[in-house]
Amino acid sequence: MPPDALRRLAHRRSFLRLAAGATGGVGLAATARAAGAVEPLEVPPWSRTPGAPVASPAYGQPSPFERLGRRPRTPPPFPGAASTGTPLQHLHGIITPNGLHFERHHAGVPAIDPDRHRVAIHGLVERPLVLTMDDLLRMPAVSRIHFLECSGNTPWLGAKPSWTLQESHGLLSCSEWTGVELATLLDEVGVRPGAAWILAEGADASGMSRSLPLDLARDGAILAYAQNGERLRPEQGYPLRLFVPGVEGNLSVKWLRRLKVGDRPFQTREETAKYTDLMPDGTARQFTFVMEAKSVITTPSGGERLGGPGFREIRGLAWTGRGRIARVEVSTDGGDRWQAATLEGPVLPRCLTRFRLPWRWEGGPAQLLSRATDETGYVQPDRAALVAVRGTQSFYHNNATFGWRVAADGGVSHAG
Amino acid sequence: MRVSVLGTLACLVLTGAALADPGGPATGLHERTARFGIGRAATPEVLAAWDIDVRADGRGLPPGHGSVRDGAALFGARCAACHGAKGEGGSADALAGGQGTLATPKPVRTVGSYWPYATTLFDYIRRAMPFDAPQSLGADETYALSAYVLHLNGLLPEDAVLDAGTLPAVAMPNRNGFTGDARPDIPVPAR
User: Fold this and answer.
1) Which of residues 28 through 47 in chain B touch A, CB cutoff 8 A?
2) Do B39 and A379 count as a contact with CB atoms less than 8 A apart?
3) Which tens digits make up the pLDDT trace of B141-164?
4) Going from the N-terminus, what domains does chain A have, and what CATH number goes with each?
5) Is the dihedral angle over the CA atoms A231, A234, A237, A240 positive or is it negative?
6) CA count, 13 A, side-chain hemisphere, A358
7) Where are the domains of chain B?
8) Residue B189 — very low, low, confident or very high, per pLDDT cuts 50/70/90?
9) Are strands A339-340 and A119-123 parallel, antiparallel or unpaired?
10) ipTM of this model?
11) What's the CATH number of domain B46-169, 1.10.760.10, 2.40.30.10, 1.20.58.220, 3.40.50.1820?
């Protein structure tokens, strides 16, 4: 809290003490409570008896008072081919707890025995291989912190004022991923001349498959077996997933069973019928990989109700698939004036970056917006600028600025 | 004996130096990767059950054939419950119709209106359909279902039969409808 705010608070407290001392009485005590005076502290029951023993449970769980969970935005017709969002409005820092990482499955979560799992790498290579999980664990391991965002995060159409951040931006998470660099494995098998694309295929019931160009495969992609220090969760690809940083999430094929090196894209259903961006002229953009710079305010955000005027910190997340976030600006008046937010480190490439800005809500309406700039100079656009080029049927890659309206009663909803 | 031990030591020292600089130009690819020596050789026999992808030029299509008529019966039994009796869509995607709608405010993306390659249909059915029993259909059944879905879109006559030679040759209406990634596509605002 800034020094002048502390001084004001101290002044108010001494005024209340003086007033109570002068006249006393029930009315003034109520006034004091309403103004934030504290009741005498009690010694609670948990301080009067020893607590639970160690290892209860052996694998620690959140406090029973914490009730966070992932949920789908709308009830899915096929629960196995659906998505759930991360409750970003209730999280802190940049790392997503493993149990809250967003989900997108195409045919459910397979129950894979790691001892029976295999990954094959073949095609235009000198020495095609089949590897076990033990094989991969013997190879050089890297750990990198990156965001993962579904290309369908933040729908172009159907936004509702009642949306929470989980509903508008929940297909976004950030973890430390550990595994073998794909480049290491490609060197191990020896890529043959003419190789240009790699098919990545999952062992789930959809046989999820995407093609990625060789240069992207060598740009930090990982065959990941661990997430935030522990083995992958089943819904994140246990025992092995591809993780391709900075690009649309569906390239990071889960339950990875096969990599096939070829000279051209394989034109799978996911990269023709599905993850392509339809333009107003009827053509569609294909192989739209990178997730461009984007940011959103996480608090205050939709569904929240501000308890009263006064100081509160505006906080949010910014990220880009092109290197690092360079700057985030925040507006509290719908975009007329912008202030530079503080980037709360670390500021890592292709990673969520936390930003914050001190704010004093005066009790009237406010319109909160954030705008990210990445190290390439790209500035997060507003929705109108994107729609002018892409229309509203492109479905994916909506990285527009996203506004929260604070009403005079403190209610926060999506607008603008 | 002494010579042998020294030889082993020298070898270890060289290996250590090479690993300390894995990107070093002095170390050849084969020389370096041979040192891992991890994994088993993936021969075509080992890979046979997994090597199921089909490319746009038809490479990967198996022997066999299937007719529109056979596909109609199979579709009714295995697909229609989710995709509709004529592929018009239901709880799952519409597979037919929508041609000419892509540039309208309400585009309908189906196999006939949107998919650029007929081969993708075979690949996807073989790996992922029916939703409740993927990889349960044989090659003939997969050809037959592909033929029927293409027929529902007016792209094959009722008496057509598909195989590895004819499937890649089916002319798809939106074959040339795809472009590359044009982003960044928004001008940077002036400050």
Assistant:
1) 29-30, 32-33, 36, 38-43, 46-47
2) no
3) 999 999 999 999 999 999 999 999
4) 83-284 (3.90.420.10), 294-414 (2.60.40.650)
5) positive
6) 5
7) 2-39, 46-169
8) low
9) unpaired
10) 0.89
11) 1.10.760.10
